[in-house]
Amino acid sequence: xxxxxxxxxxxxxxxxxxxxxxxxxxxxxxxxxxxxxxxxxxxxxxxxxxxxxxxxxxxxxxxxxxxxxxxxxxxxxxxxxxxxxxxxxxxxxxxxxxxxxxxxxxxxxxxxxxxxxxxxxxxxxxxxxxxxxx
Length: 134
Known about the structure:
This protein is mainly alpha-helical. The chain has one domain. It is about 80% helix and about 0% strand. The protein is built from five helices and no strands. α1 packs antiparallel against α2. It is globular. The chain starts with 10 loop residues before the first helix and ends with a helix.
């Protein structure tokens, strides 16, 4: 069983990050798939929801659940004709936007910003490990 890299951090801090960034994450993901699925817009919502679920798990420190959800996203992506690069692009956009939000929101609380930034680093690491294993 894989251990979450955020286990040493406060559980409430990671769940707090997942909670307050949810609207940002879903907005970024929806925009990314909206751009890629202009010919099949009915598939943008299920893609966005599946991808959002991964990020909710990652930002809550539930890596195994995120990887299981990633398998579901891959199935939907294949059916929608979305390649790995588009999924990777959406992940990059989420990372950058959430990091920007953290740094802006917590500019006077560097310890909090650093903890949240490390959660994002852990999320990126988990995504990269999953991609390498695929």
